[in-house]
Structure formats: structure tokens, C-alpha cells
Amino acid sequence: MSPAIRELLDLVFRWMHVIAGIMWIGNSMLWNWLDRNLQPSKTGKPGIQGEIWLLHSGGFYFMEKDLGGWDRDRPLHWFKWQAYTTWLTGAALLIVVYYASGGALLIDPAVADLTPGQAVAVAAGSIVAAWLAYDFFLGRLISRMGRMGAVLGLGLVLAVAYALTHLLSGRAAYLHVGAMLGTLMAGNVFRVIMPSQRSLVAAVERGELPDTAPAKRAKERSIHNNYMTFPVIVLMVSSHFSDLYSHRLSWVLLGILVLGGATARHILNVRFGWPRWKPALAATFAATLGALALFTVRPARSSASVAPDAAGPVTFAQANAVIQKRCAVCHSADPADRTFGPAPAGVAFETPEQIIARVERIRVRAVETKTMPPANKTHISDAERVLLGRWIAQGARRD
């Protein structure tokens, strides 16, 4: 697949993925809010579970929750394709960005010695295995365990994160844990929630009372989806934050993100009956941010700690030789390696001005986090990274 086609597909699928995800999550949160804010019905009609008045778009809306059925002369609207479209476009993105790029973003030789085929098998296999285990056993166990089920769920996510961060690149591991949770959510819609709704409609059409067992199971899975929402969102955008996924304890940081997101979601769920939910939410935010900072914030390095004077000055010519050999292979208008197309992310290192303008980016990505080049595909050595660090610490002079 050519880089131009890959980038075009990346754009199209990502655009669709974000739009569908907003619709899916937005609908989920709206229905969750409605369920928790319904007021007792004043009509006295049987089957009415609650009602609510809403104001939006310059008009008043009245809604009832009715288990007895609906007006057969009116269409019944279902909510499913937002979930399916989100998952399908997400799967397409995994293929385009990670599986069809020869392992460029999937493999980190410093982590594990895998071929592209083996890495794809690990990545995709982890998602499939997680869904099968969850759907046939773990989902029911987590529901029966109550609060301890949440602890078990977090522990399982941490176990998967630990395994993937020791087999794949940190960026790929984070994305695949997010894809795993997104698959559980979409699978819940397809396998449990939608069948329950179809059985409800069928029972009403037959004039029978609906079986409560499918509805109960669907409600349990809907609650699981609710708590996975915030963790999935943060993991889907995690590729922008190399300090997290490149950390030697990246799996711990992933756990902090998941715990913080799920806790925030819980507080927002119970806020209607908990007067102190605002300080609790603020405390959760502060604790999550503080825990992440504890691991990731590093004291500023002095020139002495990065480039001892005894090592001597590093010239621009020396630093540029490394950049042209290890970085400009991709980061140029006409790259030798076209895996990511010309000048990925708009970054080019063809002139001294372009290099000087991106010194801080070079320091973070190539020297400190070592997330560039991706999967070290140009084989930059530790000595070359140190040389770049010394040049930057000495003021990044253009001699």
C-alpha cells in the first residue's frame, strides 16, 4: 500500500471513527442521564416507569419510559449503528496504521524481537482473546462480584497492559488496550443489548410480558460500557503523549489513566444523590494528575548532567550528520523511506533552520523518550542519541 493511499485512508477512517464515537458516547451519556432523572409518572398509566420534561433547541420535549410498548402507527427508533460504525472504523484504522505498515509503529526491537506477522498476531489476538474471555465468563463474574468486580476488571486490564507493553511498542500497546475495551463495548451492544431489545419488541408484539432476564443482562453490560467509556477515550488519544507510552512503567501509567477515568465516570453517575460529588471529582482529577506527574515529570537536566565538559563541544555538523542519517530518511520532502509519506507530521530536517526550530522536539522524542525513529527503524545508536543530547545541552549552536 502506497503512503499516499495509507494516509488518505487514515484520514477518512479517523474522521468517521471520531464522528461515530461522539454519537455513540453522546447517546450513551444522554440515556444514562435520562434514566437517572426520570420523575414518577402523573398519568397513572400501567407500564410507565417515569417521565421527564426537557428544553432544547427552542422547544419543550416530553419523554416517557414505557415498558408496555409503543404506538404502532409511529416508527420505533433504534440506536446501534453508532456503536457498530465506531468499531468498524476503529478496526480499519488498526489495519491501516499498524498492521499494513510493516510493523513500523507496532514493533519496538528494544522490547521484543518479533516479526511483523508475529506482532500483528499478538496485537489482534489479544483483542479477540479478551472478547471471548469476557463474553463467555469474565463479564458475568465481574457483575456478580459487585465492587470487587471493578477491582478484578482493573487488574485484568493491567495484566493485558503489562503483557502488551513487553511485546509491542508502547504506542501500539496503549492503542490496543483501548481497542480491546472498545471491542468489549461494541460486542456488548451486538451480542447482549440488541438481542435483549429485539426480544422486548417481539414480546410486546405478541402481547406478552417481556422476559426480564435478557433485560437484566443487557443492563449489566450497559453499565460495564458506561464505566469503560472514559478510559477508552483517553487511550484512543494516547498516541500524542510519548512521555506516557515510552515510560519504562508505561503499563502502570495506563492503569492510572483507566482508574482515574472509571472513577470520574462513577462520580458522575452517582452525583444526583451525592451532594459532595464536585469536590470528589476535583480530588479524582488532582490525584490522577499527581500520580502521572510523579512518574513522568523529570527535573530539568543541566548541561553538565547531559553533556560533561570533558567530552568536549559538539558541532552542528556532527549533530546534523546523525539527523540526516537517522531522521531525514523519513522527515524530508522526498524521503528515502516512504512508509509514512513525505515529512510526517509536517516535520522536515532538510535545512539548518528547520533543525534549529525543532530542537526541543528532537530532545524529547529522540534523546529522552527515544520514541523516534519509530521502532528504531533507522537503527540510531545510544551513542548517537547522547551526542544529540550533548549538542542540545550545549545550546544547539549552529557553528
Largest sheet: 2 strands, antiparallel
Number of strands: 2
Output the structural class: mainly alpha
Q: State the order of secondary-structure elements, H for helix, E for strand.
A: HEEHHHHHHHHHHHHH
State the shape: elongated
User: In terms of per-residue confidence, which ranges show pLDDT below 50 for 5 or more consecutive residues?
Assistant: 300-305
Q: Can you give the helix content as a percent range?
A: 55-70%
Strand content is: under 5%
Query: What is the averaged pLDDT score?
Result: 88
Radius of gyration: 26 Å
Distance between the termini: 42 Å
Strand order of the largest sheet: 1-2
Number of separate structural domains: 2
Provide a count of the helices: 14
Structure write-up:
The protein has 399 residues and is mainly alpha-helical. The chain folds into 2 domains: 3-68 and 76-296, no CATH class; 303-393, no CATH class. The chain is built from 14 helices and 2 strands. It has helices spanning 3-37, 81-99, 116-144, 147-165, 170-206, 212-236, 242-245, 250-270, 277-296, 303-306, 316-326, 352-357, 359-368, 382-393, and strands spanning 48-56, 59-66. A two-stranded antiparallel sheet has the order 1-2. A hairpin with a 2-residue loop joins strand 1 and strand 2. Helix 1 (3-37) packs antiparallel against helix 2 (81-99). The longest helix has 37 residues, at 170-206. It starts with a helix and ends in a 6-residue tail after the last helix. Keywords: Heme, Iron, Membrane, Metal-binding, Transmembrane, Transmembrane helix.
